[in-house]
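Ligand-bound model needed. iron/sulfur cluster.
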Amino acid sequence: MTATGGGAEPVLDVRDMRVWYGTDRGPVRAVDGVSFDLRPGETLGLVGESGCGKSTIGRALLGLLPESAACDGEIRFRGQDLLTTGRRELESLRGPELGMIFQEPLTRLNPLMRISEHFEETLRTHAPRISRDEIRKRSIDTLRRMGIPPTRYRSYPHEFSGGMRQRIMIALALVLRPAFVVADEPTTALDVLVEAQIIGILADLRRNFDTALLLITHNLGIVAEACDRVAVMYAGKLAEEGDAREVFTTPRHPYTRELLRSTISLRTTGLHYIPGAPPDCVDPPTGCRFHPRCPDAMRMCRDQEPEEVRTPVGSRVACWLHGPAEKVPDGGTQPLVREEISVADEA
Ligand code: SF4
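Prediction:
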C-alpha cells in the first residue's frame, strides 16, 4: 500500500515484499505482498495480532532476517534496493542510515560495559577517526534529549530503571542520526507513564531530526497518539492503510473494526474479542484470510482474494465490501453462514 501523505520523496519505498520461513511443515508465508512507503519525518504504525508478520517486516527492512528466511520484492531506501545490496554495504548502512530500537533493552545492553563505552563502540564503528571529545559531546547531547542527565554517562546498565534503559537504547539508535528507524514494541513491559514519555520522545525526534519511523506495536493507543499513518496487518497481508485518525474514526476493513472494538480504553463498558485465532501461515485460508473470523463474510470471500482498492479519502483497503462491483459474481455477496466455513479455515 502506498503513502497517503504528500511532500518530500519517500525515504523508504517497499513494494510487494514477501518473506518465507522454511520449516519442516513447509514454507511459512509470514509476509505476503506488502507495499508501503515512508517520508522523512513521518511515522507509520504497523499493527495487528501476534504472528501477523509485523516484526518480520521490521527485520527484513534492516536485513536482519534469520538464515531460514527468504525475502523478495523491493525495499528501496533513498532509491537503493536493499535486497540487492551486498552484506558489507548493508552493515555499513545500519547505524548511520538505518536504525533499530528493540524491545527488552537489558538484553541488548552489555552489563559489563558503561553507557559511555556503548556510545564509544557505536560511534567508532561508523566513524573510526572521531575524537573522544566529540563522542562525549554527541552522546551526552543525545542522552540529554532523552532526559538522561550527563552525570549518568559513566554508569552501568543495571544502575538504571527499565524506562531509562529503554531511553538509552533509543539514544544509541539515534546518536548517528539515521534517516529511518524501526522501533519494534519499544514500550512493551514499561508502565504507562514511562510509555507516554517514550512516545513523546519519539515524536520530538522526528520533528527535530526528520527521522522516518516505523513503529511496530500491538498497542493501538500508541499509534493513535504517535503516528501519522497506520497499516493494519492480518496473516501476512495488509488489510488497511491510511491516515491514522481517519482509519481509527472510520475503519473500513472488518478486521480493523474488530481490532478497535477489542481495545480497552477508559470508555470501555464491556469486553470484546475477535472469535477464533489468526490462521496458520503454512496453509492459510483461501480467499480472504480473515473470512473464517469475519462477521461480514460473504460467499465470495471464501474463494476469492480481495483486491486492494483506494478509498475516496486516499486510504487503501483489501476487502470485498469495498471491492470493484463488477468483480462481484452473482450470489457472491450472500452472507457466508457458519456451516460453510470449513474446520481447516477455522484453525
Ligand atoms: Fe470480511 Fe469478506 Fe471483507 Fe474479508 S473480504 S474482511 S471476509 S467482508
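Residues 257-346 form one domain.
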